[in-house]
Amino acid sequence: MFYFFLFLLSVFAYLFNLSSYPLLSPFVSLINRLLMPVMEFKAQTTRRVQDLVNTYVFLVDTQKRNRKLVEEVNALSLKVSELEGCKRELLQLKGLMEEPPTVEYTLAGVVAYDPSGRDEFMLLDKGKRDGLEEGFVVAHRNVFLGIVDQVYAGTSRVRTVWSDNLHVSATAGGKNYIYRGGFPKGSLLHVAQEDELKKGEKVFLRSLRLPPLEIGEVYEVYPSGEQFFKRVEVKPYGDVRRVDFVLVLRRRL
Hints:
- The protein is of the alpha+beta class and 253 residues long.
- The chain has 2 domains: 1-98; 105-252, Rod shape-determining protein MreC, domain 1 (Thrombin, subunit H, Beta Barrel).
- It is 34% helix and 32% strand.
- The chain has a 6-stranded antiparallel β-barrel with strand order 1-2-5-4-3-12.
- The longest helix is centred in the first third of the chain and has 73 residues, at 25-97.
- It is elongated, with a radius of gyration of 43 Å.
- Residues 2-6 have low confidence and may be disordered.
- Keywords: Cell shape.
- It comes from Thermocrinis ruber.
- Residues 110-249 form the Rod shape-determining protein MreC beta-barrel core domain.
């Protein structure tokens, strides 16, 4: 209140030019000296408040920019992830197409696997609309994966080399057999006791109309109690869950 009163006196002295009067000049000078610290403090306070306001505005602007940058970084990370996925798909496609089969085929994507974990079947994103039919052979590069056994409008199901219900003609060691699927191992049927199949011997799909496709290799040969045949286990090469794309060969066995 006191300084406010001095401020009013100073304004009054300025308006009426009281400092020009010799008797009042010392009084006006005293008032100005008393008000000077207050005015300086006010000026400093004003500058500090202005600096704080500017700092606040800068921080708010920086925060907005940081949020925008975070959003841009997240968007770029998503794009990088998508590009990596595309890169993996392209590499897999390149692997599929290095040696194009001599028969007509359809490139299909794998959309689902056997939920039981036995990998007995997989679902493809191609179906009747794409010309697929039951009995078509499914392969990945030079490896036999299975047979199309159910076809729908836009999807189809493949019975894989791990399925107990898969039976196909096969060759191993220069002789013909029947390969029966199974998990975790398949087997060769009707292997004569005198047939000299060894562990590691490759087993191929047998077909007159298709290129040779590998089913797997002999895992173990066991002596059998039967008089004519012995038991032969086969380890399939087809790793169904590592495959994203397959070739559906438009041929039946």
